[in-house]
Amino acid sequence: MEKGIGTGIRKWTVMVYLAGDNNLDSAGVVDLTEMKKAGSSDQVAVVAQFDRIGPLTGTRRYFLQKGGTLDEDVVGDLGETNTGDPAVLRDFILWAATKYPAEHYMVVIWNHGSGWDDEDVYRIGRSMKRDVVRRGIPVSKTLFGSEVPFGTARAITSGKLRRAVLSPTIEQALNTRAIAFDDSAKDFLDNIEMKKVFDAVTAKLGRKIDILGMDACLMNMFEVHYQMRDAAGFCVGSEEVEPGDGWPYDAVLSALAAKPSMTPRELSSLVVDKYIRSYRASDNVTQSACDMGKAEAVAAAVNALAQALTAHLGSSSGKMSVIRARSSVQSFYTADYVDLADLCGLLASGTADRQIRAACAAVIDGLTKNGMVVKCGCKGADVSRAKGVSIYFPAKKISPLYSRLDFTKRTKWGQFLKAYAGMVRER
Prior knowledge:
Layout: E1 10-19, H1 25-38, E2 44-51, E3 59-63, E4 74-79, H2 86-99, E5 102-110, H3 121-127, E6 131-134, E7 137-140, E8 147-149, H4 150-156, H5 167-176, E9 179-182, E10 187-189, H6 191-205, E11 209-215, H7 222-227, E12 232-237, H8 249-258, H9 264-277, E13 285-291, H10 295-312, H11 316-328, E14 337-339, H12 340-349, H13 354-368, E15 373-379, E16 390-392, H14 406-410, H15 413-426
Parallel strand pairs: 1-2, 1-5, 5-11, 6-8, 11-12
Antiparallel strand pairs: 2-3, 3-4, 6-7, 9-10, 12-13, 13-15, 14-16
Helix pairs in contact: 1-8, 2-6, 3-4, 8-9, 10-13, 10-15, 11-12, 12-13
């Protein structure tokens, strides 16, 4: 009998989809080792699918157990796969739900979040004559002995120093919130594909996934939430770039093992707490848990705000109040992504217009007052005003791909952005 099967219906099955066919390959081994510190039980199944870099290593499925080696936890060898293929993710989720049925399911997508960090951080480590270390474990060994944190190595590859070897793909990814990059296949999952995957999963299982986790950068955007609103009950992710160490799987899974009766809301909040506690203030980290069932209400509030703001741009005082708010808002690694609640707070305080103030209050209430943001955590001066959900607000140029999203099609936010961009260009 396959490992872990035959124990009945568990409380939880945690599925981690590690898209490691890229420069995060060795880091995936570290995280699988973290997962093994808690392992599976008769109440919690921890399973993973790990696509490693290169055609010879291939993809393996794991039923992770406490103790022993990773090789002992292998329950399937799939050969080479493309993690950017929607069918590969769909098949993994359905396989795990069939083999390890549970009352609750959490699916974690593990990878680069928006695709720009395509540099080989291990090459950077070697050029610095240092070992690259992830949670204290060397993932790129040199002969020099000194160390550099994985997150620092990733930061070095960003901005002007990054190597954009897949420029067209990376450019698209930046604007579509791509995830699950596969360097061998030169492919990725975008929002449109992700929605189709989870629609298929929901139809097959007859229910939503309880928690969708994004162990990746910059994924807690409202556009992503709205696209995936029917996929899961809750979503957990970061507004900001995640440090290279990612989620503290040992802390999260050990707590779940100690209390497998946790509700999806409780586990979502726990991930936020454990994540924030695992970093220093200097790491400038964010993490939040969101109730996807509140996405429609927030979208309606943002739609009303967009219409009010577009009209507001018709006056000189209105223009200046929006420009001031945009210039002061909490932004993230990509300056076009701004905190939605912080933006509304600045807009409301910067105008006497009653319609704008009321629209801003409605958005903030939809996020905070028993609203969409279940739990929000941040640490560090650079992200001190992060409140859980970001939104796209480019200063000048709008991506042509933005119009593809459900949120843009069903609200006036995109039209407001066009009006704002046009107004800024004319100044």
